[in-house]
Design a protein that fits this description.
Length: about 450
């Protein structure tokens, strides 16, 4: 069993998220803990008011709502009675046995899972501490419940399963295949809450693996100036499609303000997490010093690390981002150290620096014009000057900023542009005849 705990300030948002699932036929409210009447005798208003009255007992508590999901292995299929017993035991073990809570069984995924909604304000107005509740309370409760109910153990499954580069179960989403908002939420639910990133660019490095992008808009746009944020679905070419969805419209509210808090919290990383990525890169290059970038990327994938290459409009590499799906960390190359930056990796892979790499591409294109250049050189005494200039203008226009790098082209241009040499041309025989006439004059 895998337990995920989220705390928020909006009991209404969490409540209606689950109730809307019920109305769509994708969920069922299977039990209610510490409510005055049975679940089938309560209206939505009665359920929500029970929570709101608790919230009003201590309005100073901002983060007052708990939203828990209990996820079971796909091979398991438990009865409703057993699921209710598991939920009740779990809430008791984490210290919420006396709190009002609702348990929903969702049926919109392949594996069985429950959603539990509760409040962390007790009946006397005191606040239940949620700090590090996952490690302090949830983990011990999960292990005990797995033993007691004979559930598939989360830890054992993780060790035995081979790593996959699709850590999100639904894989990359495609616009039009499933409901846009639901598809984006499924990605955000995993990436935003489980990966460590220090900027919007690093977050997008992971989101783009699943065809999602967080967007603030252009720097002068109203959305950017107001601190707004939207999420797009991307097509196969990485371009936004469809209608963007506001971050504030998701019940978890992954807004820019929320993300900025994440950026701060993620500034401190475990050195072992960085060392894992650096060691994987070093080992890959140690075996083969002149490894192509594409091959380096494939070898890192086998270690659970995705490599994203950032290129400019001309196709030049200017940045590398590493996404470690094992430790759930995102690192820019330069943040790992100078020798893991884009320029250093290119050099370590036996490639030349970006400028030289571009020049090599230009040389290759010019070599394809070798036949044309040879023809010009052979026909320079037959073609008229205007004709030759027209042909050369085409070459120069295509490669005008690089043609000076090709000595052969420079030489041909110089030769062809010397038009006065054609007008003054004299054959060998005529030159000899003039010399003989001059000698006769001198001999008289």
């Amino acid at each position: 069993m895998v337990a995920i705990i989220k705390s928020t300030h909006s009991i209404r948002g969490v409540f209606y998220y689950n109730e809307n699932k019920v109305k769509k036929g994708a969920a069922e409210c299977i039990t209610a803990g510490n409510f005055p009447t049975d679940i089938d005798k309560m209206t939505d208003t009665m359920k929500l008011n029970r929570f709101i009255k608790r919230v009003e007992l201590n309005e100073n508590v901002k983060c007052n709502t708990l939203h828990i999901s209990l996820n079971f292995d796909p091979s398991e299929n438990h009865s409703k009675e057993k699921l209710i017993a598991i939920a009740e035991r779990y809430m008791e073990k984490i210290g919420f046995g006396e709190q009002p809570y609702l348990v929903y069984q969702h049926s919109d995924t392949k594996h069985q899972h429950l959603h539990v909604v509760s409040i962390n304000i007790e009946k006397d107005g005191k606040r239940i501490d949620l700090h590090n509740i996952g490690m302090r309370k949830s983990e011990p409760a999960r292990k005990e419940i797995e033993e007691h109910f004979g559930l598939v153990k989360a830890e054992g499954r993780k060790k035995n399963e081979e790593f996959s580069l699709e850590p999100i179960s639904m894989g990359s989403i495609q616009y039009g295949k499933i409901e846009s908002k639901k598809a984006i939420f499924n990605v955000l639910n995993t990436v935003v809450n489980h990966y460590k990133y220090e900027s919007l660019a690093e977050l997008n490095a992971v989101l783009k693996l699943y065809n999602v992008m967080a967007d603030r808009g252009s720097e002068n746009s109203k959305m950017f100036l107001a601190g707004g944020l939207v999420y797009h679905i991307l097509n196969a070419k990485g371009k936004p499609i469809g209608v963007p969805i506001k971050a504030s419209s998701f019940y978890t509210r992954p807004t820019l303000k929320f993300l900025e808090e994440k950026f701060k919290n993620n500034e401190v990383r475990n050195m072992s997490d960085k060392s894992r990525v650096k060691s994987a890169i070093d080992m890959a290059l140690l075996r083969e010093p002149t490894l192509p970038l594409t091959e380096l990327s494939k070898r890192l994938e086998k270690e659970g690390i995705s490599t994203l290459f950032r290129k400019n409009s001309e196709g030049l590499l200017y940045g590398i981002t590493y996404v470690d799906h094992v430790t759930k960390n995102v690192f820019n190359g330069s943040s790992l150290g100078k020798q893991y930056s884009a320029k250093a990796i290119q050099e370590r892979c036996g490639l030349k620096v970006a400028g030289e790499e571009k020049r090599n591409q230009i040389y290759e294109r010019l070599r394809s014009k070798k036949t044309l250049i040879n023809v010009l050189e052979q026909q320079k005494n037959i073609l008229t000057i205007p004709d030759m200039v027209k042909v050369l203008d085409v070459l120069i226009l295509e490669e005008k900023q690089y043609f000076a790098m090709v000595p052969q082209l420079d030489k041909i241009i110089d030769n062809l542009m010397q038009s006065e040499q054609i007008n003054n041309y004299l054959s060998y025989q005529l030159k000899n005849k003039k010399k003989m006439q001059r000698r006769k004059r001198l001999s008289r």
